[in-house]
C-alpha cells in the first residue's frame, strides 16, 4: 500500500481508540512478532534514543511512527528496565505537537543533570514549501517520569556551511562542560560531525566541525556518538552514501566506528580507519550509554531505511538489537551480549561430536527462539558451521570458510525475502582455527557474536514458524563441535 503524505503525517491523537485497537489486533496476528526484543506495539520503530540510566533504571527510547510500517511523523516511545533484559513499555515520551518539532521528534540522547534526565533531540519542521528546518530541542524528565518539553529550541539555526541535514545530538560531559556531537551535511553535500558545548544544557555554543581525515566519506553522517573506554576515544556514526568495497558496505547505509581521541579544544581527531560495527544485514543508528558499573552498552536499530520488510503487511516494522557491551582489548573493539541476558536462560541441552563430512542434528537442538553457543575446532574441513530455522524448504546458514578464512552468513533460504537487491549473504575475514559462535535467535532475527565479540552479524530473518531445525556440519573433512543451547524465557 502506498502511503500518502497526509497519512504519514496523521498523528496518533487523531485516530480513535477503536482504530488503534484494530491496528494492534492486526499486528498481534503477525507470525513474526519477537519474543525477547523491544518492538513497537504497532507501526514502525527506528533509532534507539535517549539510552541512559536514571533514578535506578535503564531508560531506552526509540523513534516511532505509530500508525503503520512507514517513516511517518516520528514520536519518542519510552521503555525502561532494571536489568537491561526485561523491558517495560512506558508509553509516548515526546509528541511532535509543537511548532519546533511539528514534522517529527527526531533522534537524540539523554544525560542526567540536576537530578533530572535531559532529553536533547532534533525537532524536524517544514515550511510552506516543504523545506526542512531542524531545531535542537530539550525535554526534561523528572524522578516521577513526567516529561516537560521546553518551548524554545536550545539550538535554533544551522550554522553557515551546512545544509538542513543537521540532526541527532549525542551529549556527554567532560569536567564541568557538556558537549554534543551532531550529524551534519556540508553545503557541498559531504557528511561530517559538528561539536557544540554548554555549561548548563541550555546555552549552547557552536565549537565547529570535528576534523577527521574522512573529508569525503558519504553525503551525510547520521547518529554520531562519542565516548571513551579506559581513555581510548571511540567515534561512532552512520554514514550514508558509501559504495560497496570488497566485503564491506553492502547494506544501503552503514554504521561503524573510528578509534581516536577527540580533543574538544582543537576539535581534532587522529583516528584509525572506519570499521563497520556489524557484519550482518540489519544494523543501523546505534547509540551507547555508560552503565552504573562503568560498562559501555550499545543498542542498535535492527533495520534499515528504504528497505521493505515482510512484516509491513502486518502493520509493523523493526525492533531494537539486544544490548551489547563494548570493550577495547589489545587495541581492538569487542562486542559481547550483556551478561544480564543469562537471566533469560531456560532449559539447557548440550552435545559434543566430531563431524566427518556430514550434517547432523543433536537431541533437543531445535527451536524458533533460543540462545546457542557452538565451539568448533577445525581439523581439515573446507567449511563448517550451523544451519538454523531449518525445514525442508528453509534454512539460515552460518559457516566458516577455512580456505578463505571468512565467516559467512547466508539468508538466501531463510524464508520470506528481504532486501534481496542488496544481496543475500554477508561475510568478513577472521583468521582462526577455533570458532565460537554465540547466537541469539528470536522469531524473526538472529544476532551472532563470533569469537567472544571479535565480529557480530545482526540480521532479520522471516522463516515459517515450522522451520525450527538446527543442524551442525563439516564439509570435505572433519571438525569437532561442542554445543549448548538454552530456551529463552519470554
Ligand atoms: C536515522 C535517522 C536519523 C533521524 C531519524 C528520524 O535512522 O534518519 O538521522 O533523526 O532517523 O527518524
Automatic annotation (TrEMBL):
Origin organism is Domibacillus epiphyticus
> Could you tell me which InterPro entries the record lists for this protein?
ConA-like_dom_sf, GH32_Enzymes, Glyco_hydro_32, Glyco_hydro_32_AS, Glyco_hydro_32_C, Glyco_hydro_32_N, Glyco_hydro_beta-prop_sf, Suc6P_hydrolase
Q: What is this protein called?
A: Sucrose-6-phosphate hydrolase
Q: Does this UniProt record's set of keywords contain Isomerase?
A: no
Q: Which reaction does it catalyse?
A: Hydrolysis of terminal non-reducing beta-D-fructofuranoside residues in beta-D-fructofuranosides
Protein family membership: Belongs to the glycosyl hydrolase 32 family.
Q: Which GO terms describe its biological process?
A: sucrose metabolic process
Write down the EC number: 3.2.1.26
| Organism lineage | Bacteria, Bacillati, Bacillota, Bacilli, Bacillales
Every copy of the Glycosyl hydrolase family 32 C-terminal domain together lies at 344-482
Amino acid at each position: 500500500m502506498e502511503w500518502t503524505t497526509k497519512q504519514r503525517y496523521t498523528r496518533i491523537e487523531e485516530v480513535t481508540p477503536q482504530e488503534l485497537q484494530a491496528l494492534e489486533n492486526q499486528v498481534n496476528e503477525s507470525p513474526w512478532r519477537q519474543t525477547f526484543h523491544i518492538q513497537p506495539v504497532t507501526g514502525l520503530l527506528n533509532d534507539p534514543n535517549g539510552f541512559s540510566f536514571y533514578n535506578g533504571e535503564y531508560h531506552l527510547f526509540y523513534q516511532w511512527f505509530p500508525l503503520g510500517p512507514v517513516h511517518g511523523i516520528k514520536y519518542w516511545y519510552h521503555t525502561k528496565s532494571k536489568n537491561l533484559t526485561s523491558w517495560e513499555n512506558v508509553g509516548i515520551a515526546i509528541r511532535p505537537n509543537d511548532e519546533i518539532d511539528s514534522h517529527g521528534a527526531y533522534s537524540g540522547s539523554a544525560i542526567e543533570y540536576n537530578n533530572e534526565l535531559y532529553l536533547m533531540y532534533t525537532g524536524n519542521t517544514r515550511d510552506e514549501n516543504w523545506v526542512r528546518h531542524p531545531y535542537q530541542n530539550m525535554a526534561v524528565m523528572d524522578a516521577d517520569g513526567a516529561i516537560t518539553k521546553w518551548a524554545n529550541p536550545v539550538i535554533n539555526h544551522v550554522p553557515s556551511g551546512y545544509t538542513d541535514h543537521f540532526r541527532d545530538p549525542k551529549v556527554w560531559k567532560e569536567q564541568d562542560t557538556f558537549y554534543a556531537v551532531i550529524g551534519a551535511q556540508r553545503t557541498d553535500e559531504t557528511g561530517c560531525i559538528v561539536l557544540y558545548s554548554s555549561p548548563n544544557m541550555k546555552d549552547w555554543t557552536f565549537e565547529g566541525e570535528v576534523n577527521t581525515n574522512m573529508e569525503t566519506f558519504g553525503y551525510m553522517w547520521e547518529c554520531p556518538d562519542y565516548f571513551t573506554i579506559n581513555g581510548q576515544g571511540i567515534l561512532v556514526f552512520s554514514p550514508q552514501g558509501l559504495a560497496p568495497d570488497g566485503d564491506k558496505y553492502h547494506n544501503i547505509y552503514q554504521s561503524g566506528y573510528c578509534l581516536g581521541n577527540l580533543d574538544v579544544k582543537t576539535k581534532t581527531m587522529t583516528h584509525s580507519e572506519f570499521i563497520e560495527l556489524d557484519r550482518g544485514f540489519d544494523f543501523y543508528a546505534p547509540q551507547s550509554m555508560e552503565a552504573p558499573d562503568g560498562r559501555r552498552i550499545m543498542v542498535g536499530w535492527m533495520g534499515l531505511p528504504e528497505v521493505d520488510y515482510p512484516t509491513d503487511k502486518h502493520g509493523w516494522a523493526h525492533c531494537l538489537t539486544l544490548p551489547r557491551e563494548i570493550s577495547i582489548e589489545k587495541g581492538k573493539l569487542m562486542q559481547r551480549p550483556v551478561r544480564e541476558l543469562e537471566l533469560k536462560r531456560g532449559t539447557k541441552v548440550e552435545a559434543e561430536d566430531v563431524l566427518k563430512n556430514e550434517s547432523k542434528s543433536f537431541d533437543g537442538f531445535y527451536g524458533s527462539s533460543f540462545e546457542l553457543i557452538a565451539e568448533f575446532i577445525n581439523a581439515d574441513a573446507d567449511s563448517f558451521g550451523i544451519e538454523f530455522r531449518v525445514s525442508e524448504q528453509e534454512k539460515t546458514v552460518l559457516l566458516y570458510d577455512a580456505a578463505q578464512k571468512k565467516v559467512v552468513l547466508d539468508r538466501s533460504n531463510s524464508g520470506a525475502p528481504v532486501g534481496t537487491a542488496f544481496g543475500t549473504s554477508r561475510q568478513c575475514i577472521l583468521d582462526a582455527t577455533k570458532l565460537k559462535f554465540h547466537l541469539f535467535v528470536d522469531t524473526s532475527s538472529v544476532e551472532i557474536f563470533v569469537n567472544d565479540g571479535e565480529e557480530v552479524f545482526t540480521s532479520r530473518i522471516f522463516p515459517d514458524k515450522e522451520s525450527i531445525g538446527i543442524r551442525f556440519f563439516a564439509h570435505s573433512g572433519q571438525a569437532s563441535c561442542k554445543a549448548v543451547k538454552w530456551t529463552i524465557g519470554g
